[in-house]
Amino acid sequence: MSALSDETLKKILVQIQQTAVQSQRSLSLTKQQSTAKERERRIVQLTIGEISSVGKDVKLYKGVGKMFMMVPQKAMEQELKAQEKELTDELNSLNKKVRLIVGLMFTSPLNDFVTSPNI
Questions:
Q1: Of the N and C termini of the chain, which has fewer Cβ atoms inside 10 Å?
Q2: Is 111 exposed, middle or buried (0-12, 13-18, 19+ CB in 10 A)?
Q3: Tens-binned pLDDT, residue by residue, of the chain (119 aa)
Q4: Closest to 34 in 3D by CA, of 106, 83, 88, 84
């Protein structure tokens, strides 16, 4: 360790700090996206539950721009279930991304330090 000059050690430290800050930002952004998708998915689940609980003779309307369009109950349920599946897939993808970022946060700086050609 004493073979490294102070300048080299400072460069390595700065590189590790930059990587850590970038990883923390990325992790924070991904968690925010995950929270938003989870909230959106929960709203869709609640809407599906409400639509399922109303009678078959109730008219359902969907907002289209500045107006509303009548939609059959079955079509509305199918659309919401497809949206829920899409949100679940996106959540799974974001959770994988969080695990990857956390893994990189704990391994990358150490690997860069150990395998650095400056040593």
A1: N
A2: exposed
A3: 456 788 888 888 888 888 888 888 999 999 999 999 999 999 999 999 999 998 888 899 999 999 999 999 999 999 999 999 999 999 999 999 999 888 877 776 555 555 555 54
A4: 88
Q: How far apart are CA 98 and CA 26, in angstroms?
A: 9
End-to-end C-alpha distance for the chain, whole angstroms: 9
As a residue count, the chain comes to 119
Provide CB contacts within 8 A for 106, sequence distance 6+.
none
Nearest alpha carbon to residue 7 among 114, 15, 110: 15
Q: How far apart are CA 76 and CA 80, in angstroms?
A: 6
Furthest C-alpha separation in the chain: 82
Residue 73 token pair: 């109950």
Is this model's pTM higher than 0.85 or not? no
Take residue 20 and report the two structure tokens written for it.
């850590």
